[in-house]
Amino acid sequence: MQDTDPTTASRIGDRSNDRIAQLTDWLRLQEASGVGPFTAKLLFDAFGSPAAIFAAGHEALAAHVSPGVARALCAPPPPSIPPLLDAALAWAAQPGQDVLALGDPGYPQALAAIPDPPLLLYIKGQARLLGQRALAIVGSRNATVQGKANASSFARCLSQDGVCIVSGLALGIDAAAHEGALDGAGSTIAVVGTGPDVIYPTRNRGLWARIARSGCIVSEYPPGTAPSASNFPKRNRIISGLSAGVLVVEAAARSGSLITAHVAIDQNRDVFAMPGSIHAPLAKGCHKLIREGARLVDSIDDLRDVLALAPRPPAPAGSLPTETTCLGLLAHLGHEPVDIDTLLLRSGSTVGALSLELLALEMAGLLERLPGGKVQRVVA
Question: Tell me, which fold does domain 323-377 have in CATH?
Answer without folding.
Answer: Arc Repressor Mutant, subunit A (1.10.10)
